[in-house]
Amino acid sequence: MNATKRPRVVIIGAGFGGLTAAKALKNAPVDVTLIDRRNHHLFQPLLYQVATAGLAPNQIATPIRAIVRQQKNVRVELGTVEAIDPAQRHVVLGDRHVPYDYLIVATGARHAYFGHDDWERFAPGLKTLEDATEQRKRILLAFERAELEPDPAERAALTTFVVIGGGPTGVETAGAIAELANKALARDYRRIDPKSARIILVEAAPRILGNFPPDLSEHARRALEKLGVEVRIGNAVTKVDETGVTLGGEHIGSRCVIWAAGVQSSPAARWLSLPADRAGRAIIGGDLRAPHHPNIFIIGDCAAVNGADGKQLPGVAPVAKQQGDYAARVIKAEFEGNPLAEPFGYIDYGNLATVGRKAAVADFRGFHLKGFIGWFVWSAAHIYYLIGFKNRIAVALDWVWSYLTFERGARLITGDITDEAPAATAKRDAA
Amino acid sequence: MNATKRPRVVIIGAGFGGLTAAKALKNAPVDVTLIDRRNHHLFQPLLYQVATAGLAPNQIATPIRAIVRQQKNVRVELGTVEAIDPAQRHVVLGDRHVPYDYLIVATGARHAYFGHDDWERFAPGLKTLEDATEQRKRILLAFERAELEPDPAERAALTTFVVIGGGPTGVETAGAIAELANKALARDYRRIDPKSARIILVEAAPRILGNFPPDLSEHARRALEKLGVEVRIGNAVTKVDETGVTLGGEHIGSRCVIWAAGVQSSPAARWLSLPADRAGRAIIGGDLRAPHHPNIFIIGDCAAVNGADGKQLPGVAPVAKQQGDYAARVIKAEFEGNPLAEPFGYIDYGNLATVGRKAAVADFRGFHLKGFIGWFVWSAAHIYYLIGFKNRIAVALDWVWSYLTFERGARLITGDITDEAPAATAKRDAA
């Protein structure tokens, strides 16, 4: 680094971690380049709302450029990183090489099938806006096809929804599908009754929401069952195909299976030849630096970092944000000739999950909230953290509206549906 | 038709015409089946706003089922009509046959290239939500690529936008791109200045907005030029390819060309072997009935009907709506044993087009409005006609927000962008 040139900090990924790091470098004497494959920051905790037609894509996504517009030391570049060259100190995007003095890798994770990649076709996961609009299409088309389907067995399979994975995403998705069927769609069909749809939540562990205290898991299970969701715990899925899901010995006929069971890290560890855990996360220490590359920080869902209790920190937004902030503070401190000595320490403010309206569970350091008050806190927290003032208002309005009317604002089937048109076989001339 | 069974009215297409017909049959003793390829009604006059990132798809689209939910004699079916069998009196959707006693064909139109279908790849048109999100992606990606492009000539081509066709859609699109570049994006890039983008509106006729009186055309032209749009009139496009547009002898380098120049009817005339005009519209009389098939009505953009002045009625929403209402009244009158004698008569309440904020032109039977008051009337009219109470509020809020902040709410690039990633050739290590 020479004195005449400002150090270059390159951040890969504009998720919670990368964006927080960029913002924390606001007044630092550095030039920041923020690289992302997308032009928008996505508020992933609400992605399931898009998948279940509760919110529209633009309500949970904000253009990255708009977020950092005022911060003149940040440059945004759209592009897909293919490799990192720590010797040359640059990031490789095809023929384009972006040089860095400091690098923050915050490339997140995608859903994973752990050796069952063939399941993806029948049970897609939920990580991007495109994933969400695709799931929305699948869910809504299932009802459309059921309305036209003369065969009762096929009709039952079309209105059976299986959500695999009992973590927060699975619980929230199952609850939202139940509300969609029971309320928003309830009066919209003439031949089928959406209220008779089966929604099944499958979890291999002995309880759902394994990261929450047992009493809140139990509360969530009962709240789901009240919504009409069948909760199947302690049962591992052994097969997913076009006919449905096999669970233990039982086959559940379903035309719409949703995967919320596992994630796989982006290839940060592979790019840097670092040891990784089972999910591909780079195993790093409390300084968040890549071993042997002290000018590279790895944060968020692509990093495996242990907390004070020796357990691995969860892949949630608050961890990514606090790590982004920490990495930025370390970089700033180095210029000020006053290197930060203490390692990263995660402050856990609590854990939230919602089960439809009026029911959520919240665990604030042992202080448990449930039911409507839990839901209220959940809503307030999510609206507060949604980036962008306007989105906050729009989401709040949408929720108030949904609450009052049970209406869904974003019930659009977009994309090609002709390939997947119902193969109705009965002619109804005689009817 | 026997006495024990209610007559079946089948409506193909839930656009302005079909939906109005369905609603007008609310209290009629008939069973209505409303068939559409999409699950949503689209407010097409505002589609250009989605294409230019001003509104989100869900703000201009409403689920058809939600619109007719309260109307118990309407059944909605999702499906693609392939043929009509007037002898058997049914509509063919693959193996599915839907029988009718009365049929209303309201299948609309798509954009057309009149013998230049190879242009579509480089100059897509705007008729569906998917068209609009695709155009939004192309427009926004052009700026993203320009930001990364080292070659000045290529950068200029990336920030040159050519809109072909000077009707309302072309005028509105060109104005909206100019505002996007001059306002919403103005401060978002570090290397390029979006305000220096070239927006060119091309019209082969001697003036834009040919359906409006000449003074309003002239006002619109000046308003566009004030926004920085180059208006090229009396010039026919002779070529469109990956390098740009050829106009007379001149080649304009552009990576984003938008087609707003012509429409082609859906195949209603072909389905029924009826004579059609150049755009494929079925040529029918004032009774709106298909010749030789008195129980089939053809309305909206797939019908060529002359007005009282002998000129063909324009392909606009008010014509379709009034025709839908007329067809429904004719059908109702037939049951009441009191057949309607008078032919369809179009009541023209006026013509509106907008040129960005603060400027619109309106022609109400010779009473002309321009500028801000025109814009205000335009906004009020469009919000009023947007179907769905909530959409009205959401769109109004969005417009007020845009007006106050010049911000764009829906600036998302979705869909695959990896195939189209900028082929940047310069390495910037040396920089």
TrEMBL record, chains A, B:
Q: Which residues form the FAD/NAD(P)-binding domain?
A: 8-324
One example of the protein's molecular function in GO is: NADH dehydrogenase (quinone) (non-electrogenic) activity
Q: Can you give the residue ranges of the External alternative NADH-ubiquinone oxidoreductase-like C-terminal domain?
A: 350-404
Supply the enzyme class, top level: oxidoreductase
A Pfam family annotated for this chain is NDH2_C
Record's keyword terms, sorted: FAD, Flavoprotein, NAD, Oxidoreductase, Transit peptide
Q: What is its EC number?
A: 1.6.5.9
Keyword match NAD = yes
Domain of life according to the entry? Bacteria
Is Oxidoreductase found in the keyword set?
yes
Tell me the first and last residues of the signal peptide.
none
Q: Which InterPro entries match?
A: FAD/NAD-bd_sf, FAD/NAD-binding_dom, NDH-2, NDH2-like_C
Q: Which reaction does it catalyse?
A: a quinone + NADH + H(+) = a quinol + NAD(+)
Which family is annotated?
Belongs to the NADH dehydrogenase family.
Protein name (database record): NADH:ubiquinone reductase (non-electrogenic)
User: In which organism is this protein found?
Assistant: Candidatus Viadribacter manganicus
Ranked from the top, the taxonomy reads: Bacteria, Pseudomonadati, Pseudomonadota, Alphaproteobacteria, Hyphomonadales
